[in-house]
Amino acid sequence: MGRERRPWAAAAAAAVLLVASCVAAAPLQQQHKHARISGDAGGVLDDNPVGKLKVFVYEMPRKYNQMLLAKDSRCLHHMFAAEIFMHQFLLSSAVRTLDPEEADWFYTPVYTTCDLTPQGFPLPFRAPRIMRSAIKYVATTWPYWNRTEGADHFFLTPHDFGACFHYQEERAMERGILPLLRRATLVQTFGQRNHVCLQDGSITIPPYANPHKMQAHLINPGTPRSIFVYFRGLFYDMGNDPEGGYYARGARASVWENFKDNPLFDISTEHPSTYYEDMQRAIFCLCPLGWAPWSPRLVEAVVFGCIPVIIADDIVLPFADAIPWEQISVFVAERDVPRLDSILTSIPLQDILRKQRLLAGASVKQALLFHQPARPGDAFDQVLNGLARKLPHGKGVFLQPGEKVLDWDAGLESDLKPW
């Protein structure tokens, strides 16, 4: 299926390309600073979080953050870098308080993704030890953790499977969420409904994608979108899953086997220097799951106005209470990948145009980016708004004197080793 060019598919693609080119060439209306997207699709929540919450930032020994960063600066540029930039942002944010007694939330700046392998991946066996050590330091240095056992604390855990701290799902599920974080609010890139690695009350954030790098690759907005479907990335992980049945739950392998010869699909494992430019020439950008259900492609597609085709069952998307994902994306069930060609070519032109107009708005793009310096309505603001919407803290957050909920000795034996 999908390997021969059907006449109806070619005609549909040609029509879409023609109309999309006209949309691309039309000048965008100037956006207000906190503008909502026009139309009945709604828009990004544009609340200003200042005045709605106060955050106390723990001052941690440098070994938990700055020394790790100095040891390997690659963690400033990888997709987990939100934990570093969130720390930098909060240090100068108007929501920061130097008086812990008036704080709504407490933040522990610990860079668990900065301990990297030679290939640049976070060491999964080290991350939970770093986090446990940091929590122990906080609990023994200040009184605030012990009042709630972390229920008024939030942590950045931008790993593949969040606070399960592993890139392979089976290993992540075996470990589970680090027990000491069970009462805390987790701010994490991972989100999948009904999954042991997603904790109730977690805030799902986008992975880090460098705003300056993407800005440098913008092309003329009048450039026609001459690519129907675009994707660059792995279809098989030959080193860890050579048969392709486990990696991406077989969805990526199915994309390749069904559409590698389909002229509507520009897909390859090669990553060209024109990758960002190519996304701006595409109508649809595939965003399939990999080892985890999320990837930076989602952010890149939105920034470049390419309609994300999300292939990841039960995914919880970044800032889902603030961004109208249903209106700007196409969702395809993993089992329906063999029908991708018919699904995409059957989308009415007016629906494609509407998604493109919504994607052209500044507020959606802004909400997915961790700008330096921060900008109103960007990903930093969305995190703070997510925290503000959880206030006031509910009954049961503050423990009675002597009351304990968490077990410091729970967890895998390997995770209990000192760091």
> Rg from C-alpha positions?
22 Å
Question: What's the shape?
Answer: globular
Poorly predicted runs of 5 or more residues:
1-13, 18-42
* Total of helices: 15
Report the strand count: 10
Please give the share of residues in helix: 25-40%
SSE succession: HEHHEHHEHEEHEHEHEHEHEHHHH
* Structural class category: alpha/beta
Can you tell me the number of structural domains?
2
Biggest beta-sheet profile: 5 strands, parallel
Question: Strand-residue fraction?
Answer: 5-15%
Output the strand order for the largest sheet.
1-2-3-4-5
What is the arithmetic mean of pLDDT? Answer: 89
Rounded to the nearest angstrom, the distance between the terminal CA atoms is 52 Å
Organism: Panicum miliaceum
Main location: Golgi
GO biological process, one term: glucuronoxylan biosynthetic process
Protein name: Glucuronosyltransferase
Detailed description of the structure:
It is found in: Golgi apparatus membrane. One of its GO terms (biological process) is glucuronoxylan biosynthetic process. There is one protein chain. This protein is α/β, with parallel strands linked by helices and 419 residues long. It has two domains: 55-208 and 377-392, no CATH class; 211-368, 3-Layer(aba) Sandwich (Rossmann fold), CATH 3.40.50. Helices cover 31% and strands 10% of the residues. It is built from 15 helices and ten strands. The strands form two sheets. A five-stranded parallel sheet has the order 1-2-3-4-5. Strands 7-6-8-9-10 form a five-stranded parallel sheet. The chain is globular. The chain starts with 6 loop residues before the first helix and ends in a 31-residue tail after the last helix. Mean pLDDT is 89; it is low at 1-13 and 18-42.
